[in-house]
Structure formats: C-alpha cells, structure tokens
C-alpha cells in the first residue's frame, strides 16, 4: 500500500488509495489502512520479527551522525514541500499522510509501536466524561470535546532493561519497651505517680548486597509534553507493542525524540533508585531501617525506542493555554483544567444563604428546638440550593 518517494533524507512513505487514488490512513482499533473517501481498506501487513532489545554499550560506543534539525517532505499527492521535524504528519496543503523514512536521518530508529486503539469518537466520549467530572470548571471547558480540538500523536519513549547489584550500608532498628514512671497533679494539688509503657529502638549497623533485574523502565523521549501528565497516563500495555511498521503512523503526527538515549538511561536509573532502596530496607530487616549509602552497578543494559499513542487537546481560557491528554490505548484522561471563580462564588453564596436561613428559622422559633427550626427552614434551603445549583450544574460530576 505504501509508496516510498525519492529524495535521500527527504524520502518518505506516501499512502495513495488503491481504489480511488485519494489517501488512506491507519484506522484506530482496526489494524487496517482505510480511505476516508471511498471506504476502501487494506490490512496492515505486520513486520515478521519480534520486538527486540538493543545493547546499550554498543550504542554508546558507536559514533552517531548529528541528525538534521528538520527534513523535507515532498507530498506524493499534491507535490508540495513541507519542512518539519516530525517523523510523520499530514501535508499542510492537501492533508495526505506522510511518514518519514527514518534510516539516513541520523536518529535511533523506532523498534516498536503501540498502535492507536481509541478512535476519535471514543476519545471524545472519554473527554466528555472527564469534562463533566470537573467540579467548578468554566463552561468553556466543554470546547475541548470538539473534534477539531484534538489530534492524534505518537510520542517517543525509551525503555530500559538492566541487571543491578547494589552494595549498601545502613542500620537496623529493633523496638523494645520500657516502663516509665511519671507524676501528675490533680485538681486539688495532690501529686500522683503513674507508669506507662514506652517504645524505644536499638540501632545496629547493617550492610549487604541486593540484586534486581529491571524490565521495560519507561522514560519519555520528548520534553514537548508535560512529564507529570505523561506519567499519569501509565500503565501502558507494553506487552502489546508491535514491531515498528511505518503504516501504523499514517494519518497521525509522530514526534522525534529530543531526549537522547544517554540522558534517558540516567532518568531510568532515577526510576530504579527507590525500588533498589526498598530492596535494601527489606534486606536489613528489623522493625525499622535506615539506609545511608547505596552503590549500584549496572550490567546487561538494553534499550529500545517505542512510540506510544496519545490524543492531545489544547484549548485557550482567559488567554492561557490548557492541555489535556488521552491515552489512545486505555482512554485514560489527564490534563490541566481552569477554575470558574463565578461558579465557586455562587456556590459559597448559596451555602451562606442556607446557613442564614437556618439561623433565621431558629431565631423565629425562639430557640424552641432544632426539629421545628429545620422544618421551617426547608423551603429556604430548597430555594438556596436551586439558586446555587444554577452556577455549578454544568460541570458537576464525580469528583476527580
């Protein structure tokens, strides 16, 4: 189905429809390339190889050419030339999908891809549920659900495997109890002696060695998306990743990595560190532990570059951009949201009105009992709730 254009570093895959000559795109969740005009589709032929891990030491020892800041696409449909740093995108003139030929760009080539599974309607449904659950969100937040606001993007990620050996020093704490005597003075000034059990801890020096094998430690390969949002999209079904095939990218944007693999490995070690420290604490034993130093050596380090699918919606509110991400495999939604000061104010005022109505009812009853007061206040509470609800009803849902 795909055709490879000429042009050295500018070479890329194009996707003309075999039936009508228009364009075909990868259809999320189907495993096919589908033409949006005539409906013709064809199965993506999977690459006949397993997803592999690569030796990091070999990569570090190899001189890698400097990748160009951008490369040119020449659209096979309309002939327009587009300069971009994306690995895939649509032609800005006719919308035809274009996927760069990675070989020759001086980049580490993707090893695997997790294809889009959540299509646009399912993404919009997930966004709609998320929007409705945002308490005190402005009505403008509903715009993020519109189809024009979101685009599908493959984000580069590194995965690292490593065998670790960690030597540690620390202390093991063991609890014991002692009887403690103390004195109190009663209301008449007399002293009284009491005893109580007090927990104390004896500390003993500890040292040892622990080992752990890590598999698929995931590190974002791009800094263009907020890392705290990307982290919340986990877990990913990495076991479902397929060997890289350019066809999966047709019709979607694909970002290049801007985090080099060496930097990625250091970040992966940072992810491993708390796990290793927990191993040390378990090895120390006792009731409580202190870990002073940990020296870790890494061996059999391997890596791969993986492309993960995300729907990204960006919208403006009050002159400030907000970004929402949807995991295109699990439909998990994370992102930024604004707060509506007006809705919050209306809710506070409604609460104050309810409180004032209760106080008024109690005073009107001459303090003659809460039951009668609450019965009298019922109509006021109902009116206050109706009044306040008008300010918050649009965005009320399950709290996030």
Summary tags:
400 residues; alpha+beta; 13-stranded mixed beta sheet; three-stranded antiparallel beta sheet; 6 helices; 18 strands; 24% helix; disordered C terminus
Tell me what you see in this structure.
The protein has 400 residues and is an alpha+beta fold. Helices cover 24% and strands 37% of the residues. The chain is built from 6 helices and 18 strands. The protein has helices spanning 56-61, 120-132, 227-232, 261-284, 341-364, 370-392, and strands spanning 3-4, 12-14, 25-27, 32-34, 41-43, 54-55, 71-74, 81-84, 86-90, 97-100, 112-113, 150-185, 191-220, 242-243, 253-255, 288-317, 320-327, 333-335. Strands 1, 2, 6, 9, 10, 11, 12, 13, 14, 15, 16, 17 and 18 form a 13-stranded mixed beta sheet that branches. A 3-stranded antiparallel beta sheet has the order 3-4-5, with no helix packed on it. Strands 7-8 form a two-stranded antiparallel sheet. Strand 1 and strand 2 form a beta hairpin. The longest helix is centred in the last third of the chain and has 24 residues, at 261-284. It is flat. It starts with a strand and ends in an 8-residue tail after the last helix. The relative contact order is 0.18. Mean pLDDT is 82; it is low at 4-10 and 383-400.
